[in-house]
Amino acid sequence: MNELMLFFLSFFGVLLLLYPFENLQRKNKIGQFIREEGPDLHNHKTGTPTSAGLVFIPVVLLAVTFFSKDHNLIIPVTTGVLFGIVGAMDDLAKLIKRNSSGISALTRLILEFFIAFFIVYMIQRVNPHTHLLIPFSKKSIDIGFLYFPFAMTAIVGTANAVNITDGVDGLAGSVYIASVFPLIILGYHGSLYSALIGALLGFLWHNWYPAKVFMGDTGSLSLGGILAASLAMTGREIYLFLFGFIFVVETLSDIIQVGSFKLRNKRVFKMAPVHHHFELLGWHESKIAFRFSIIALGFSLLGLLGWRGYW
């Protein structure tokens, strides 16, 4: 019942608050700057209101602070807030520069790893461990002193993977919902994910094609950080390959494309990340978001089975 209340509070809160948020940006001519290296199909999106994470992250934060009975949320919530601040800095830099570059990649990575260090330190204070649980089994791997950098990389990598996925209307939000829904079934941080799903559905009301607002780096970095930190609390970073399958694929497609072009002077995809490849094949943005979400749900359900050790 508590999860249901959090869901509806977040859903209606975000759904309603985004209307004045969008209008304020349009009135002041504030909006998204489209990457020059992106598809020409996206040029018409220039000027679309952005940084909706500034709305849905605070709504979720307030909802779980006042109505959640789960006392184990401080680490994932703190992660979301801190990564959201980095994302907001990036979004603000884009508006000031009036282009899509934002803060430098090096500066952003340094900030992200600093936050990740702090988060992993907090996790170790609450639940000291150096092991990684293996899906579909009751076994674990103890990686000793390597755990700290591994967990930090998992958190930073997931935050940026969600950011990379946020490239077509409705994609990142719908894939994230599909990815974390089974965690509610498991009862793992259920109140937080109920609030997040409600908030993202309210956001998708505005973000589904044709999008009236984008989540911005504020939203995407925060969402990725929350998911990774949540799983890292119990040594389940490997589960990110299941609960974050699409995010992993999107990131790998980018790495493969860059590596192939540098080593062979050839591209594997028409454009990376892979959602742009399908766009250039003629897939509609809604089709990409819907099908990627189905795949994400399938792998996250595998994660549910792997969590219980069933096969």
From TrEMBL:
Organism in which the protein naturally occurs: Kosmotoga arenicorallina S304
Family statement drawn from the similarity comment of this UniProt entry: Belongs to the glycosyltransferase 4 family. MraY subfamily.
Protein name stated in the entry: Phospho-N-acetylmuramoyl-pentapeptide-transferase
Reactions it catalyzes: UDP-N-acetyl-alpha-D-muramoyl-L-alanyl-gamma-D-glutamyl-meso-2,6-diaminopimeloyl-D-alanyl-D-alanine + di-trans,octa-cis-undecaprenyl phosphate = di-trans,octa-cis-undecaprenyl diphospho-N-acetyl-alpha-D-muramoyl-L-alanyl-D-glutamyl-meso-2,6-diaminopimeloyl-D-alanyl-D-alanine + UMP
InterPro entries for this protein: Glycosyl_transferase_4, PNAcMuramoyl-5peptid_Trfase, PNAcMuramoyl-5peptid_Trfase_CS
Keyword Cell membrane among record annotations: yes
Function of the protein: Catalyzes the initial step of the lipid cycle reactions in the biosynthesis of the cell wall peptidoglycan: transfers peptidoglycan precursor phospho-MurNAc-pentapeptide from UDP-MurNAc-pentapeptide onto the lipid carrier undecaprenyl phosphate, yielding undecaprenyl-pyrophosphoryl-MurNAc-pentapeptide, known as lipid I.
Biological process, per Gene Ontology: cell division; cell wall organization; peptidoglycan biosynthetic process; regulation of cell shape
Keyword Cell membrane: yes
EC annotation from Swiss-Prot or TrEMBL: 2.7.8.13
MF (Gene Ontology): metal ion binding; phospho-N-acetylmuramoyl-pentapeptide-transferase activity; UDP-N-acetylmuramoyl-L-alanyl-D-glutamyl-meso-2,6-diaminopimelyl-D-alanyl-D-alanine:undecaprenyl-phosphate transferase activity
Sequence positions that bind Mg(2+): N163, D217
Topology versus the membrane: Multi-pass membrane protein
GO CC, alphabetical: plasma membrane
Subcellular location, record wording: Cell membrane; Membrane
Gene name of this polypeptide: mraY
Segments traversing the membrane: 6-25, 46-67, 73-93, 105-123, 143-163, 175-205, 238-261, 288-307
Top-level EC class as recorded in UniProt: transferase
Necessary cofactors: Mg(2+)
Record key words, sorted: Cell cycle, Cell division, Cell membrane, Cell shape, Cell wall biogenesis/degradation, Magnesium, Membrane, Metal-binding, Peptidoglycan synthesis, Transferase, Transmembrane, Transmembrane helix
